[in-house]
Amino acid sequence: MTHVPSLPAGPPDPPLAQVVSAKPRAFSRGELIRLSSPRKVRTAISSGRVVRLLPDAYVGAEHSDSFLARAHAALLWAGSAAAVSGTSAMFLWGLVESPPSHIEVLLPHPIHLNPPDWLVVRRRVRPPATAHIAGLAVLEPADAIVTGYGRLSPHTRAEPLYRAVRSGLVSPDALADAIRRAPRVAARRELSTRIAAAQAGAESFREEVGLRSVFNTAEFAGLLPQHRVRCGDQTFRLDLYDPVTRTGIELDGAQFHDGSEARQRDVRRDAALASIGIQTVRFTFADIVQRPAWCRQTLAEVLRARER
Fold it and tell me: What residue stretches are annotated with the DUF559 domain (predicted)?
């Protein structure tokens, strides 16, 4: 009788603590049991290697303060209809740099259990569409901004919105549609005004101020916002452009482009535009905010001089 040698056994399953530590995500108790055994799950929990964040939502101990792990746990607890919203969704879309201290989720129905301090649950009968980021259901960018904008501190609200517009992540019209659909919006009036500025062509707070409060008089009615000019094999976007005098107006100035490389790019761009007859006039943010009348007078004089 010929004996066939047995095949070598495969590698043993990794310990439960190693599995839950591999990624900052949440597991149900059933998932943990399928990965190991009821006894090993009880041991991991009692030893503190696995932490219960919410009912039937467990994470590896080292990830218990992680934004991603908590967001996964929140959605696992809240159910399949839930989605990350507000500033939490804005963070996941890369619109705010630091994760918020609270995870915010949106639900179409109320939850009667009391969430922990780090979790905020909001209700909306008809939740907007979602996308998936890192395994999380997240509101689409426009709805993320509309639900999160008013919960940012006032001095930090403008840049995330304009960053989304500049990058092409969202269009001003999509933002306008999202705010129309939302039943309750924190800082609705301010956000509506800012969206209108974006629809008018602003792509930064500085440009918003320029369009809304500085170059908003009748003598500048012919200026074209966000005008693109082809120059050789390059295309440049001008904050404002006067087609009559072929004058470009930049509202960001040296305060925005303060790095030496960025400044060099500005100088080269101005030279390239001058080669096709377009003169660039730059105003710093300080002048736009503190000396709007001077900015208007200066630009008016430049335009009159170039009309001759």
Answer: 239-293
